[in-house]
């Protein structure tokens, strides 16, 4: 079955955005959003200027107002990914928490909230990296930065260097595999295992208040997602 193409909400159609002026019909972010959607749903080989323009309802001259070339757009997609997914994960590793289990709960927010960390985009970048050495280098740099941030988080709570690095790798790579398995669990099914996940990742028991807060966060995100769908 073919994939349904759903164009992301454009600036001009969003009542919360300021109206566009003059002859401007789409913004640079509109081009990026639609290109990102195609990258995720169809792969980088389908990110083409004419096809994107058709989905946006504009000519390709609009594209060259914002980007020098298709490669410029692809570079911008990579930068957008680093500025969102990678930046969000690193930020969560630095969020304040009284315990390591609370700190890991902060990181769990990236797993729970697709508006914070787009897992589908992460997999699209990984697929792209298999056919591009340049993208592979960007991916390797991002993986290293994420792992370094996670290891530093464990070190702040008293773990030695080797254990911190190992636990960072377990947490990070386990989550990639978990998402790739696409288990399609309900929120309740996934969150009921959270106390044991925290024990496995940290070697420590989370407090009841930490677990309750993380589970409540997951329910709020799920509820908001259901309202949008």
Polypeptide structure, described:
The protein has 229 residues and is mostly helical. It has a domain at 97-228. 69% of the residues lie in helices and 0% in strands. The two termini are 21 Å apart.
Determine the fraction of residues in helical runs and give it as a percent range: 55-70%
H/E element sequence: HHHHHHHHHHH
Number of separate helices: 11
For the sheet with most strands, the description reads: none
Work out the number of β strands: 0
How much of the sequence lies in strands comes to: under 5%
> How many whole angstroms does the radius of gyration measure?
20 Å
What is the distance, rounded to the nearest whole angstrom, between the alpha carbons of the first and last residues?
21 Å
Oligomer state equals single chain
Average pLDDT level: 90
Query: Which of globular, elongated, flat, extended, rod-shaped describes the shape?
Result: globular
By helix and strand content, what is the structural category? mainly alpha
Low-pLDDT parts are 1-6
In a few lines, what is going on in this structure?
With 229 residues, the protein is mainly α. The protein is 69% helix and 0% strand.
Relevant terms:
229 residues; mainly alpha; 0% strand; disordered N terminus
Secondary-structure blueprint of this entry?
Blueprint: H1 28-42, H2 49-56, H3 60-66, H4 70-93, H5 100-112, H6 119-129, H7 133-156, H8 161-181, H9 187-191, H10 194-202, H11 208-228
């Amino acid at each position: 079955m073919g994939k349904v193409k759903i164009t992301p909400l454009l600036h001009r159609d969003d009542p919360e955005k300021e109206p566009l002026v003059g002859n401007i019909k789409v913004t640079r972010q509109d081009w990026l959003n639609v290109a990102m959607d195609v990258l995720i749903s169809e792969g980088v080989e389908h990110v083409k200027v004419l096809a994107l323009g058709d989905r946006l309802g504009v000519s390709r001259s609009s594209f060259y107002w914002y980007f020098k070339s298709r490669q410029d757009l692809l570079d911008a997609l990579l930068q957008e990914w680093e500025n969102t997914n990678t930046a969000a994960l690193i930020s969560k590793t630095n969020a304040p928490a009284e315990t390591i289990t609370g700190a890991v709960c902060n990181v769990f927010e990236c797993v729970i909230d697709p508006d914070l960390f787009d897992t589908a985009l992460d997999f699209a970048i990984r697929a792209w990296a298999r056919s591009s050495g340049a993208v592979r280098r960007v991916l390797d740099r991002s993986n290293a930065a994420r792992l370094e941030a996670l290891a530093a988080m464990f070190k702040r709570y008293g773990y030695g260097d080797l254990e911190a690095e190992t636990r960072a790798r377990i947490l990070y790579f386990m989550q990639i595999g978990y998402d790739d398995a696409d288990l399609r669990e309900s929120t309740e099914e996934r969150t009921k295992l959270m106390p044991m996940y925290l024990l496995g990742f940290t070697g420590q028991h989370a407090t009841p208040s930490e677990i309750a807060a993380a589970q409540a966060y997951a329910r709020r995100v799920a509820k908001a997602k259901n309202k949008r769908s």
